[in-house]
Amino acid sequence: MSRRATWLILGGSSAIGRAMADAAARRGHDIILAGRDTGDLERTAADVRISTGRRASVVAFDAMAIESHGRFAAEIGAQTDVLNVALLFGIMPAQQEMDRDPARAVDCITGCFTGAVSVLQHLAPHLEQKGAGLVIAFGSVAGDRGRLKNYVYGGAKAGLHTYLSGLRNRLRRKGVHVMTVKPGFVDTAMTWGMPGMFLVARPEDVARACLSAAERNTDVFYVPKFWRWIMTVICAIPERVFKRLEI
Ligand SMILES: NC(=O)c1ccc[n+]([C@@H]2O[C@H](COP(=O)([O-])OP(=O)(O)OC[C@H]3O[C@@H](n4cnc5c(N)ncnc54)[C@H](OP(=O)(O)O)[C@@H]3O)[C@@H](O)[C@H]2O)c1
Questions:
Q1: pTM for this one?
Q2: 132 lines ligand 1 (CB under 6 A)
Q3: Cα(219)–Cα(65) distance, rounded to whole angstroms?
C-alpha cells in the first residue's frame, strides 16, 4: 500500500502509539493522534512535525464515551482522503481488582472491546466509501486462552479478535485491509512493574514491524513472531490440565 494516507492513531498517548506515529510519518504519511490526554498528544504531534516534516494534528477521543463516536467518525471521515486506522487503546486492571469489583471488569470490557467495536463500526462506512486503507487493531496473546491471572482482559481481547475477523471480511470487499495484532509482552506503561515478564519487546520495534506486516496485507500478526509458537503450545494444553495451572 504505497498511496499516501492519513493515519488515525486511537490511543496516541500509548508508547506503541507514539512509535507508530513516528514510523508512519517517516513513511510519508500524515498523522492524527486521538485520545484523552490532548496535552500529551500535542507534544507527540510537535515531535512528529519537527522530525519528519509531515502534518500531525490532535483530536479528543474517549473510548468509553460511546455516544460521541458517531460524530467523531464523521469528522475524521470528512477531513481525510485515504484513511488508515491504528487502534491501540486498551486498559488492563489487575485481575484481583476485577474479581473484587465487577464494575472494573465492565470498564475493562468497555475499554478494550465495546469501545473498539463502537468506534470501528462508526468508521467502517467512511472506510468503505474511500475504497482503500488499512486498519491495524491491537488484540493480545492474552485473548488466545483465558488464564487465571488475566481472564477478563483476555476475554475482551478474544471478543475483539472475533469481531476483527468479521470486519476484515466486510472491509476487504471495498479495498480496505484489516490486520489483528497479537503482541506478547511490550515495554509500556501497561506492563510497567509487572512481575513475571520475559522476552519483552520495544514499542519502536513493534510499531515498525506492524506497519510492514500491514503493508504486506497480513491478517493476524503475532509480534514478536515467536509468540505464535508459544501460544500454539499454550492452546494445546488440555483444559483439564490448564484449569489447574497458576498462570
Ligand atoms: N504492553 C503489552 O505488553 C501489550 C501486550 C499485548 C497487547 N497490548 C495492547 O496494546 C495496546 C497498547 O497498549 P500499551 O501497552 O501501549 O499500553 P498503554 O501505554 O497503557 O496505552 C494504553 C492506551 O489506551 C488509552 N486509553 C485507555 N483508556 C482510554 C479511553 N477510555 N479512551 C481513549 N483512550 C484510552 C491510553 O490513553 P490515556 O493516556 O488517556 O490513558 C493509552 O494511550 C493495548 O490495546 C494493549 O491492550 C499491550
A1: 0.97
A2: no
A3: 29
Regarding the beta carbon of 154 and ligand 1, being less than 6 Å apart is answered: no
Give me ligand 1 centre to Cα 201, in Å: 15
Cell 514510523: give the residue: 23
Centroid of ligand 1 to alpha carbon of 188 (angstroms): 9
Q: What angle do CA 175, 177, 182 make, to 5 degrees?
A: 175
Which value, in Å, is the radius of gyration of the alpha carbons in the chain?
Answer: 18
Residue with cell 490448564: 242
Q: Residues with Cβ < 8 Å from 134, sequence gap 6 or more?
A: 1, 5, 84, 85, 176, 177, 178, 179, 214, 215
**Tens-level pLDDT at each residue, the chain (247 residues):** 445 799 999 999 999 999 999 999 999 999 999 999 999 999 999 999 999 999 999 999 999 999 999 999 999 999 999 999 999 999 999 999 999 999 999 999 999 999 999 999 999 999 999 999 999 999 999 999 999 999 999 999 999 999 999 999 999 999 999 999 999 999 998 888 887 778 899 999 999 999 999 999 999 999 999 999 999 999 999 999 999 999 9
Task: Please tell me if the CB atom of residue 155 comes closer than 6 angstroms to any atom of ligand 1.
Answer: no
Query: Among this protein's residues, is 151 annotated catalytic?
Result: no
Q: Which domains does the chain have, with CATH numbers?
A: 6-242 (3.40.50.720)
- Quick check: bond before 224 cis, omega within 30? yes
